[in-house]
Amino acid sequence: MPAEVIENRCSDQRSDIWSLGCTFFQVFCGCPPFHAASEYLIYNRIMDMDLQMPPGLPAKARDLVEKMVVKDPDARLGAANINEVKEHAFFKGMQFDGLHSRPKPVLSLADMCLQAIGSRMKEMTASLETWDGLAKLDEEVKARLERMKTSHKWQEDVLPPEESW
């Protein structure tokens, strides 16, 4: 929720732009942008605009989120016109018309491996640290792995210890 909603002020399409930016963050990073151990702490992070980006996030993705998740509703990318979001550099070359009817893209082998690792990050983290093949990976894949590890750590940091479950 943007600050104006937390403070029970006016909410309109500009609040939706904030939420869309937060959704993009979650898709890019695998965790909510203002994660914390309680709703109160989450609200505090939002009010303080404590938006932390994990390492390895591509510059265009980072810029998109940072321009949408802004405290001032009028300053948000897309606040005046949603086409501003579509015209952002992150979406360069994207054809939006008919997007819903196109076939799903085929994942690369790297993407499939990263999905498998991501779904088992808790048990994979130690193995990744000692894996000798890490140095041979493409820089983009290494950056994505680092982002996934950071996001996983952020999520683990806000969960209660497993013994209390």
Describe the structure.
The chain has 165 residues and is mostly helical. The protein folds into two domains: 1-92, Orthogonal Bundle (Transferase(Phosphotransferase), domain 1); 104-165, no CATH class. Helix 2 (13-29) runs antiparallel to helix 4 (59-68). It is built from eight helices and no strands. The chain is globular. The model has no long low-confidence stretch (mean pLDDT 91).
- Architecture (CATH level 2) name of the largest domain: Orthogonal Bundle
Within CATH, the superfamily of the largest domain carries the name Transferase(Phosphotransferase) domain 1
| CATH class category label of the largest domain | Mainly Alpha
Number of domains: 2
Topology:
Elements: H1 3-6, H2 13-29, H3 39-47, H4 59-68, H5 83-86, H6 109-119, H7 121-130, H8 139-158
Features:
2 domains, 165 residues, mainly alpha, Transferase(Phosphotransferase), domain 1, globular
Would you summarize the structure shown here?
The protein has eight helices and no strands. With 165 residues, it is mainly alpha-helical.
